[in-house]
Amino acid sequence: MKITLKDIARELEVSISTVSKALKNSEEISRDTKEKVQAFAKLYNYKPNNIAISLKNKRTKNIGVVIPDIVHHFFTTVIRGIEKYANARGYNVIVCLSEESFDKEVINMEMLANGSIDGFIMSLSSETQQKGDYNHLKEVTEQGIPVVLFDRITNEIECDKVVIDDELGAYRATQKLIEQGRKKIALITTDDYLSVSKARTMGYKKALTDSGLGVDESRILKLPTMEMDEKGIKDFFEGHQDVDAVLCVNEIFAVYSMRLAQEKGLKIPEDISFIGFTDGFLSKYAYPSLTVVAQHGEKMGEISAQMLIDKVEGEKEEEETFQTKILEPTLVVRDSIFH
Amino acid sequence: MKITLKDIARELEVSISTVSKALKNSEEISRDTKEKVQAFAKLYNYKPNNIAISLKNKRTKNIGVVIPDIVHHFFTTVIRGIEKYANARGYNVIVCLSEESFDKEVINMEMLANGSIDGFIMSLSSETQQKGDYNHLKEVTEQGIPVVLFDRITNEIECDKVVIDDELGAYRATQKLIEQGRKKIALITTDDYLSVSKARTMGYKKALTDSGLGVDESRILKLPTMEMDEKGIKDFFEGHQDVDAVLCVNEIFAVYSMRLAQEKGLKIPEDISFIGFTDGFLSKYAYPSLTVVAQHGEKMGEISAQMLIDKVEGEKEEEETFQTKILEPTLVVRDSIFH
DNA sequence: ACATAGAGCGAAAACGGTTTCGTGTTAATA
DNA sequence: TATTAACACGAAACCGTTTTCGCTCTATGT
């Protein structure tokens, strides 16, 4: 039902080593024997057992991906990028969801760190970033397991990292709005403990400062998490009827804000403009379509996977060297701002 | 850097078997020795190697998930359901994407079928359904590897299955539109080789027939794949200015169709109503929000995982018995139809 | 004083491969 | 004829566990 080397050896009355070598086309084995063995193996559809090979090689050809969430477009595109690249190099991808929970993140890593994978690709849960506790990552890297951090990263851990330049993305988006004559630009973001929100907020403020408009802190709404908070956003707009543009830290906040504006009878982009982050279906098919800062998730996944696999397969150098790859964000202009 | 039983045994000058037993709190071992071993193990953070255990037990505690796509909301929710349930039972999830390709599906399954996983959860690629070639599934089931098929299934393979009642969902949605006085209801779907599209088309037709309205085949647009085809949809509406309601096989088609209608100056739902399949972000945050047939992806994933793990862990019965679980779809009424 | 039971531990096989090293046979060479 | 090299293959170790079985030693009972 699943044939092994031993089975073939028994049937053909040769040794296991001979079978193994014959299947690898070793020079050591005679043509006759090789043909016999290979024919038999093909007939019974022999395939070597991955687990046995993993045990021998101390290499599983699995990579562990631990992310906070899978339903949001950005993370799914990253996974897709990882999966495509990893698969092309013969690796499988084990996906674990932390669901923004520190404990789950720790448990997931522990489950995988005992031999199941050759390395980790991960994006930190919000709770982890909030606590600032990275011991689970330290333990793993100290064990010699390579880690690549993407998007939600930390400086506390020395490892390869891949991010987009969130500050630049927010800066350019804000700048674009300013260029179009917007003066009262709101920002809907989350608390600063999330590395990406912090960077985006900085870019937003910098653009306002550079342009001379100045920052009005009251125009910044900081939601506790990335979870949708309809009431929070609604209340914010009730108190800020005068804003003429909104930058949002993700596409859902932006699309929901657009709806609120439309329900108030505002015209987009004539009366008010919107820009979000993440170039997903929502942005593309919203009405009007939403201008966004594209995060290039698939590219990010691909690069993360490449960095990880290169490190996994690379010779251990005496002096470990880590790099941080910063991707450039792209502004995808659609109908929620002037063209 | 990663301690093994052998290391502990050497340090403590006992045998490997003693260490193994001591860590399992075996009665065979004296209190003294157990305490010594356990203390040492804790100190050096010993964790058994999963690969070695897998080889021994012939159980990996991994389950393979092969799906056509990961960026669409439905599949991501299924994965989430699978992951949550599987994790709770100590299993990891290896995700492979077929990207609607038969060959990739085959390759992915072969990669995993050689010991990497204990069972498969999968949804067929469109190309597979089109070819009707299920030999890769047959091979796997004949090897005794349990398989659970969800959503895109086939009768050709005997295994556990989980689906929603697509025909019923389409029937109810169409019925709802008819109740609201709609007479010219269009259907945007894909070719019938996709099991779900076929079932939904049947439900749509049945509702029309049952109500006495009758089916007008020209009002059915069959796109070649689930991929967005903006031109195809646009052209269709150009030729069907008279439709007063549209049922779409997914949410993207529906939201895009709504936009076309809006651009024509039509009011939703006064002039024209829309219903889609899949209760994702798009439906929820579209403007107007989209009424959909919810497919309960997360539940589906959960049930699939449960069926699979139960089978994996269950005693082999002499007579294998398979079940097909049919979930009931739910109509989520939003602003794209009358309330 | 001697058989015996039981406590405590180790040797070894097993899971399914890979790989090194050795060995017997044959044929070529001195 | 004796030596040697090449050829073809097998034995065994190894990866890290689990588990069965057997052994030794002590303590108990007669």
From TrEMBL, chains A, B:
Keywords: DNA-binding, Transcription, Transcription regulation. GO terms for molecular function: DNA binding. The keyword Transcription applies. Residues 3-57 form the HTH lacI-type domain. Pfam families: LacI, Peripla_BP_1. PROSITE patterns: HTH_LACI_2. This is LacI family DNA-binding transcriptional regulator. It comes from Flagellimonas marina.
